[in-house]
Amino acid sequence: MARRRTAVVRGKALEGVRKSGARARAGLAHLADRIIDIAPRVPVRDLTTLREQFPGLGPEEIADRLVAGAAKATATVGAGVGAAAMMPVPPAMPTELAAEVTGVAAIELKLIAELHEVYGVRPAGTLAQRSTVYLNSWSQERGIEATKPSTVSAAMNSRMKRELRQRIVKRTVRNLPNLMPFLVGAAVGAVMNRRDTRKLAARIRDDLRKVQVPWDELPALPALERPADALPEHALELDMGAGRHRKDDDPG
Fold first, then answer.
1. pTM for this predicted structure
2. What are the tens digits of pLDDT across the range 11-30?
3. What distances in angstroms separate CA 37 from CA 22, 24, 86, one per listed residue?
């Protein structure tokens, strides 16, 4: 009798684990789709605009400013979720976590796109095609993929979207311990996000330096079009621009 009861309990537990796993996979797939959907909505400053906002600075100096601003922005997102986790009953933590993942992704996608501008390697193609390149760069944590014609030859098709979704899910799963600051509070959530954004930027910059085109050798490029349904600028601000730099925005 006891063995039968134990078997029933074990069976129910395994069934619960299977259902939880299925829900988790579905949630991650939905999250990946959200990131794919927001990528074309991220407003990107082109090189001309960045040079106007940072007069007198060279590529590395502007890149430093962009990384510092992005790290500060993702730290702010992490601090918000960390603070929510410290509440006696965390309000809708899965929703909070999804908001953090997508918020950080949007900030880092903007950073990646603008680093490509700074290093003179803007991907060819339409807004949708460039967004695909930046998503590939973000999910693989590499910058050099943007130089491969195959990544920008066509707008995202179903196979490309499926492969990209899988990479985003893998990256999200890998980062979940860093994106769930339960019981550690806002300070640690902020530190984790700041650190990870800087690590991502360092990898991207290393790759972009290998294919960098000096500004005086760049052909004339059209201004980047602004997405019709662009995400709000204030949530994605990577740096305050000329004349508004603050000491705590400096790289380091």
1. 0.75
2. 544 444 344 445 656 667 77
3. 23, 20, 31
